Amino acid sequence: MLVLTRKKDESIMVGDDVEIFIVEIRGDKVRLGINAPKEVPVHRREVFDAIKREQEKREEADPKERWMEQDKERGYHRPSRFNE
User: What gap in Å lies between CA 59 and CA 65, rounded to an integer?
Assistant: First the structure.
């Protein structure tokens, strides 16, 4: 693990496309600004973990249920006769 020290208004580069800014430091809280391309997902750790749990749950699900869930996420509506 790389540990860096930064002050307010300083930043860190991750690769060529991701920049992390120190926006504010207040007590034991640090506000970060992250500038990254749209195709690079950026999440708080607890959100990332929840997404991974959901993905694992889907992978373990019955293939028909997984198919129906993916359609629902895409906004597709299937007539009820397909849901049997």
Answer: 10
| DSSP class per residue in 16-41 | TTEEEEEEEEETTEEEEEEE--TTS-
Amino acid present at 34: I
What pTM, to 2 d.p., does this model score?
0.64
pLDDT given for residue 28 in this prediction: 95
- Position 73, amino acid: E
Could you tell me the sign of the dihedral formed by the alpha carbons of 71, 75, 81, 84, in that order? Answer: positive
First-to-last CA distance in the chain? 51
Q: Which of 31, 51, 32 is nearest to 41 (CA)?
A: 51
